[in-house]
Amino acid sequence: MNVRSLKSAIAAFLLLANLCFILLISLNLRNKYYYDSETIQNAYSAIEQGGFGVARGILERKQRSFSVYKGDCDILSCNDIIALYGTLAAHYNIGDDVSVVCEAGEYTFFRDGSFEYITNSGVKLPESTAQTVDVTAQRKVYKMLKAAIEEFLKMEELEKCASNKKSNVDVDIYIEKISYDPETKAYIVNACQTFDGDSVSQNGVEFVAYDDIIVRASGTFSFVYPTEKIFADSLDTINIILCEKNYFEGREPQELVLSEIVYFYSVYDSADGSRYFIPMCCVLYDRADIFGIYNLVSGKRE
Amino acid sequence: MKTKIESFLSTLLIFFLLVSLVCLSFVYMFSFKTRDETKFDSDDMEALEQNFAAAGYMDDAGVDNILPVFVGVSLPGEGERVGAFGADVLEQMYTDCFEVVWQYFVHGTAHAISNSSADDYIRMAKNNGFIYIKYASAYPKSVIVSFTRKDTFALNISDEYIKEIFVFKNNYTNSVCVVTVSDTGNNYLYTGSFGFDENFNKNIVNEYNNAEGTFDFSFSSEKESEVFISKEKYSDAIYRNSIIPKGEIFLDGLSFENVSDRLASQGSYDRLLSLFTLNPEKISVFTESDGTRTFFEEGQNVSIAVDGSVKYSAVGAGGIDIGDVIGYRSENSEYSLRDKIGATLCIVREMTEITYISENIKIRLSGIFYDENDNFVITYSASYKGIPIICENAFFSFTVSGNRIKSVDCSMFDVVAYGDSVLPNAMWEYITYAASAQGKVYSQLVPAYAYDESAENVYARYYSRSACMEVNG
What we know:
The complex is a heterodimer of chains A (302) and B (473).
Chain A: H1 3-33, H2 37-47, E1 52-54, E2 67-72, H3 79-85, E3 87-88, E4 98-101, E5 105-109, E6 114-119, E7 133-134, H4 139-153, H5 155-160, H6 162-165, E8 171-181, E9 186-195, E10 198-199, E11 205-210, E12 213-220, E13 228-232, H7 237-248, E14 256-269, E15 274-285, E16 291-295
Chain B: H1 2-32, E1 39-40, H2 42-58, E2 70-74, E3 81-84, H3 87-107, E4 109-113, H4 115-128, E5 130-140, H5 141-148, E6 161-170, E7 175-181, E8 187-191, H6 202-208, E9 214-215, E10 217-219, H7 231-237, E11 243-245, E12 250-258, H8 260-263, H9 266-275, E13 284-287, E14 293-297, E15 300-304, E16 310-314, E17 320-321, H10 322-326, H11 337-354, E18 361-370, E19 376-384, E20 387-390, E21 396-401, E22 404-410, E23 413-422, H12 426-436, E24 445-450, E25 461-464
Parallel strand pairs in B: 20-24
Antiparallel strand pairs in B: 2-3, 2-5, 3-9, 4-8, 5-6, 6-7, 7-8, 10-11, 12-23, 13-14, 14-15, 15-16, 16-22, 17-22, 18-19, 19-20, 19-21, 21-22, 24-25
Helix pairs in contact in B: 7-12, 9-11
């Protein structure tokens, strides 16, 4: 065998070995993030015995990995953040919710991580959402309100201020729905804060805007960004569904179809002054009045 | 030339394939690797849930609930001493002094010592300069530390009982250490290296010297040679670490108010019943001849007397679940001493809100013990600006069996301040007390108000802590 043939043989062998490794790696990664089809079939048939149903597609989806986020819980200790929004209200007492006043209105930062903003302008606010029109798909309105909300929350300055500079979490605000009230001409925006793309709370934040001016806001938004990200040893989808099946065994209703699992974070304050964001999930059914909320770390149904 | 180029390219291709093979094999190996980074698992969640519940009751718990009856600081000898009995200055001094103490309690090493060793160290402290903290009652260390410094809550702190604390420079080791004394003779020496030298208390002395509400003082043990009764009789009657203030001490006069009116509204009834887990839709009400209204529901009842006292009791398996009160359900159904105290403090806070008691009244933990039926009893007393209010019944008394609060007794009152008066001369009070004392009582005298609802003005006087009676009463 001449040198040329030998080189060709070696190259062919190496190419084969490379392809083999690429295949093994892709299989390995798939197994890591997806259940194999046999497991899925077995799981569906085991879960669906006795009238409990699961919508197709849930188990087939990529398995999520979650982090627990940790940071300070006391906005009062972050003067630079308070200064972004105004000055501490004169009627503030230590231990109370934190009230911050600015020219346009007043912010109240509650101790459970939620906040509220009310403008001084006395504009008429929408009383019900019954007459509203969904305008989420209108790109121009979406862009205008996204910019208005980011400006109102001072997202850019918030990220740059000293208290949040040490945060390694990608914080953003995601608009879920925009409704327009023809009577008051106000936009009602349902949004939620995201950490690395995941919703921070189940309920999010509701903004009321007149064009690009926010006149009211309330909901959960972490102005103090988390500084630590810890890998969460969390429950996977099959186990969540099995827990739900066990929960409904011997309870009414017997016939249920699990339609969706929604992930979000829940706030836990520790006595040492730290705030933890714990991954949770909400299990939804074909009946709107039935749902289950799980703490993905403890595995407990809340 | 063409052959050479072909040969070079094929060699290059083999090299490239070889390198990529090595890289892929590494990627393959690492794709199996489980994440060895720090994980937040169910044990961490359990600890956080407990801590989260604590964060709830820690809003109600604090320095007020364990405020010492006296804090004193001294430079070596009797040169410069500053102490406080009450008012805001007591809390401020205590908080500053505790900045030294907590490090020994949390990170130091504890050595059990005998009574005689404790006496030796205390004698050394009195000569070398000290920080002295005297609590109203012996408290568990975990409660003292976490109530005073809330940021230490997550730390695992032991429960040895502490009534008195001396911080001083130890001549044997030439380092600053802490001696703690309890009623039961369980004394500890805490050591550790935290960068304190013989000037550990100098800043505190300088800050509080001449501050309003502070005074110079001596210990009774330092006055044995100055009394005209026998030294033996004096030292048998008076506890060696009793405080004898120098100069005049002015304290507010008080008049006491019944809170029964504040409990009489339907809103207050509803809040009380809800607090004690009675369902208003299922209760039956009985009014006794003396006007006491009793609400019954499935093995538990709440009585509200015309004098404003409130009693809750449960029979059988009933009672208020500790977990329900603090908002945390323990997996193994075991709650710590601190959780139980925390649960009682949640009820105390709600009761004081219902009766909107004056902010000058502080609720102080006054007793933690087991009764004759092996039930755990936690009592609270009232103090006015840190000065104890002596009352026949505890302001609040809780009986806990297992994880349930089985009974609650509340004898609340409110106060209104009227002018002030000067405390009697302490030295004469001690001499009088020692002269009339029979045998070894090792008592100490503390300034206190005696609860008397009928008196127009009640002034602070010295009362014996062992006998609980006024010296010149």
